[in-house]
Amino acid sequence: MLAPRRNMLQQMIYLIGLYGHYLKVYVKTLIEYRADTLIAIVAGIVAQGSTLLFLTVIFQRIPKLADWSFYEMVFIFGLAATAKALNQALFNAPFSLTWVIRSGQMDVMMVRPVGALFQSIGNSQELNGVGQLVTGIAIMVYSASRLEMDWTVWLLVYAVIALFSSAVIQFAVLLTISVLTFWVHEIRSLIYPINWLFDFTRYPLEIFHPVLRGLLTYVIPYALGSFFPAAYLLRSHQYEWAAWGVPATAAVVMALAYWLWSVGLRRYSSVAG
Question: What are phi and psi of 37, to 5 degrees?
Fold first, then answer.
């Protein structure tokens, strides 16, 4: 049976609805495996709490770090943690791409009326992301209250845009690496170190060497999905460009990653080939 023809708007609505079904399955999984969900939340609290403890110890000895106060640092950390958890919970597909290709699952996906990448995303939700998402949001809210931030409607909207832009940037970077599986059969030894680089952006970039700052801004633009949006929310007058620069970067890197994915998919012949 051929898939019905849809215009661009109809296809977008259809995909949003289909992804909603994937999320329903994800939520049902969280409810069904309540013990695992609780463990994930506790693990998230412990993981983020250890970093907060580290920051607390540091700021007992110094009043500021690169001109950022303790609660500003906590807010930057909370936004980065929330963004990473959002990526892990919703866009974890790059980590499973090697298995999808080697197991022959890609062959199955390619004969369905929905794109293989969309299906990979829909099937990639990660349970552990929930715990870190909950604690990340809690850290953001707590630090914002201590900083007495003046939240306008625009800043609230921007915070949501920035978090999803960050998730997209992380996804695009990791997809670019994982797509190399179409040419190199084992790429996991590279994708994990690239993923760990994001943790550097939980802190102000000023504390790092210029080479690392350049790497995280222009080559692997993780900083545009964590530090810079947080800095805009805290000091919008100093980082005005981040209002448009963050979502623009997400769009560009996603377009490049999708182009590379399309090139690799055209090269793919099947698991038997």
Answer: -65, -45
- pLDDT at position 1 is 44
Question: In this structure, how many other beta carbons lie within 10 angstroms of the beta carbon of residue 62?
Answer: 8
DSSP letters for 117-175: HHHHHHT---THHHHHHHHHHHHHHHHHHHHT----HHHHHHHHHHHHHHHHHHHHHHH
How confident is the model at residue 102, as a pLDDT?
A: 75
Residues 6+ apart with CB under 8 A from 166: 79, 80, 83, 84, 86, 87, 225, 226, 229, 246, 250
The C-alpha angle 178, 45, 62, rounded to 5 degrees, equals 95
Closest CA to 222 of 113, 84, 128: 84
Task: Return d(Cα 205, Cα 249) in angstroms, integer.
Answer: 18
Global confidence as pTM: 0.87
Task: Output the pLDDT for position 252.
Answer: 96
Task: Show the low-confidence residues of the chain (pLDDT under 50).
Answer: 1-2
Both tokens of 59, joined, read 């700021």
pLDDT of residue 131: 75
Which whole-number Å values give the CA distances from 124 to 87, 212, 240, in the listed order?
A: 10, 30, 34
